[in-house]
Amino acid sequence: MIRLLPLLSLVVSCLGQNLLQNGDFELGTSGWEPCGGFHCEIVTDAHTGSKALKSSGRTQYYQGPAQIVQGLKQNSLYVVEAYVKLLTDDAGGQDVQATIAFTNEDNSIDYVKVAGRDKVLTKDGYVQLSANFRTPNRVFNRARFYIQGPVPGQEFVVDSTSLTAVAIVQVTGPGQNFLLNPDFEQGTVGWEPCWGFHCEIITDAHTGSKAMKASGRTQYYQGPTQIVQGLKQNSLYAVEAYVKLLTDKPGDVVGQNIEINFAFGFSDKTTAYIGVAGRSMVLTKDGYVKMTGDLVTPSKAFTSARFYFQGPIPGQEFAVDSTKITSLPESSDYLTTTNQVINQKRKSNINVKVTTAAGIDVNQLQIQINQVKKGFPFGTAVACDEYVSGDQRYQDFINAHFNWAVTENALKWGQMERQPGVLRNETAIAALKKLKSHGIKIRAHNMFWSVEKFVQPWVKALSPADLRKTVVNRIHTVMGQTQGLAEHWDVNNENLHGQYYQEKLQDRDFNLDLFRMAHQFDPKVKLFLNDYTVVAQGGFTGAYLAQALKFKNSNTGIYGIGVQCHFPANSAPNPTLIKAHLDTLAQAGLPIWVTELDVSNTDENERADWYETALRAFYGHPAVEGIMFWGFWSNRQSRGVPGSLVTGDEFRINPAGQRVLDLFENQWMTKESKIGTEAGQPFTVRGFHGEYEVKVIYNGKERNDLKQTFTLDPNDQTININVQ
Ligand SMILES: *[C@@H]1O[C@H](CO)[C@@H](O)[C@H](O)[C@H]1NC(C)=O
């Protein structure tokens, strides 16, 4: 696909016209309001030219030069500038600020601080107030500009004031970036003032020569912010930015979180906060890290959309650059695309060479090419106790319909070894043996769980040195007992969302070591990352790609990327987003397995549609190598009835179950029959990968001597049938 990106995403210029009349006081007080209740006079101590305005006799904080501004448009960008000099001091310095009072249609007034400086002293001389701001997104009848700030009694001089419109021509069309001045090459234009902390333009940039630095942060949520224009409700957008930490938490070797969020405002004054991208474990030495994610805008109308960075703990400084929000067109023909991939990737040609001896009447000949087993891994999470000694219908269903299984809980360290050295392993191992005896392959889940709340108390109580030894012992014990039974291991579950072992050991790369040790113990077992908010939702997709690449490039023996895919309750899988996320992860060049699929919807027919959408998106993506449900029977799956394929004590295969089985066992299996002249000459069947049986029927009777079986893999297969 060729994506057209505009060369310049925006063109910024100041229109130049100062909307303030007599902004430099060279015409005296003309254009400025009389100073009611305090005293104003023209003085010669000017910043530019020969005149400035002095305020004295002030009894209120808000007393200072004021002017009614004409021609301000709503929801538009302006640059404000003024120079202010204090003539009297107060201990510690004082505030000065430029404010605009907007009078609304209902006569209420909104006071908007547009620029400010704090801790100003007389010895600073003239200080500059300068900022960009956006006017309110509603009709206002009057705009009054004024300078205020020093406490009552203090005197100050003002000069060189200006208020100018910023003209930003945004290039629209494919690839349009919805952020203005996204790379800070135009300074702070388009970005919100950073109230309560400090933002400045720096030259340590990711692209071009400028970036924005945030410092003086006292809150987690403080970071560069822009009010984004033009986003539509209920639409998809891709979000990207580069972020660099400039300070590390003292003593922190593992790293901090950085996030990109949106706050949507609604007319009822409520706000919805949506996280769109996150990175964990970021340290200053990583330099600029890429953040990618996506945004699904609210389905109800919103009045404002605020894009902002947050994350490092208060006190930490960071820089941002190269920001981007582009629309993600919903693919209308995803079925065509996925069907093409399915045809190319999941099928091969079976070339059937039929010869018939003289005397064979082809009109009496029939050849059947029947797939008897799926090649593609379709699996489920298995509750080992139920499978070993529970409901027979549960066991039979697994044996009949799935060719892969993942242990739901029984192999987790916290379940298996609740007390040190006391292994509750009998059921798990019995389940693995039984699954294997039914030809079902096994994903073992999980060796370690990186999220602190899932680490059992006795492990948490270990000293770092003992923890290292215990971890090695766990690897050797559990891999030893499952050796030859499990094909896959999830090594350190959900490492994007927790770094327990790394933090406890103060060893940032211990997650890599866990893989290396496991790989060394048994190089034949395929090792996986396994995480969430990477495909069903996309906040950590970019972070996961970066993690996968790190594992791939660090000799860890990693085999694949596990994507959990627990779709949020009552939220339909979106094939455009699924494809975008899988495309991103596929850049790692590692196989992707869907490891824990479930949706949640009490409407069984809608649930059927949702599973079909998700399954088609996965099966129709070339990087996906296997798909596992996170259980199927409502009595034994974490999502219960709303996620189930089979419901209740009656073990009813519900519409979702019927739909899934129809895909697995009908639509995505091959059964072909040729009769008469068609059977008597060579023909080709494009078949799904898996095991096949070839039957020849002549004169209404099966010719057992001509029966054959074969396995169809990604290579085309030739079958010779010689009917005599
Ligand atoms: C369970 O663990 C114990 C202790 O390591 C071991 O002796 C036993 O063989 C294991 N059981 C199975 C079925 O692997």
Automatic annotation (TrEMBL):
SMART domains: Glyco_10
Record-stated family: Belongs to the glycosyl hydrolase 10 (cellulase F) family.
Domain annotation GH10: ranges: 363-663
Keywords attached to this entry: Carbohydrate metabolism, Glycosidase, Hydrolase, Polysaccharide degradation, Repeat, Signal
Residues spanning the membrane: none
Protein name: GH10 domain-containing protein
Signal peptide from the UniProt entry: 1-16
The species this protein was found in: Patella caerulea
Taxonomic superkingdom: Eukaryota
Pfam family, one: Glyco_hydro_10
GO biological process, one term: polysaccharide catabolic process
InterPro entries noted in UniProt: CenC_carb-bd, Galactose-bd-like_sf, GH, GH10, GH10_AS, GH10_dom
List of catalytic residues: E596
GO MF annotations in UniProt: endo-1,4-beta-xylanase activity
PANTHER family (alphabetical): ENDO-1,4-BETA-XYLANASE 1, GLYCOSYL HYDROLASE
Keyword match Iron: no
Presence of the UniProt keyword Transferase in the record: no
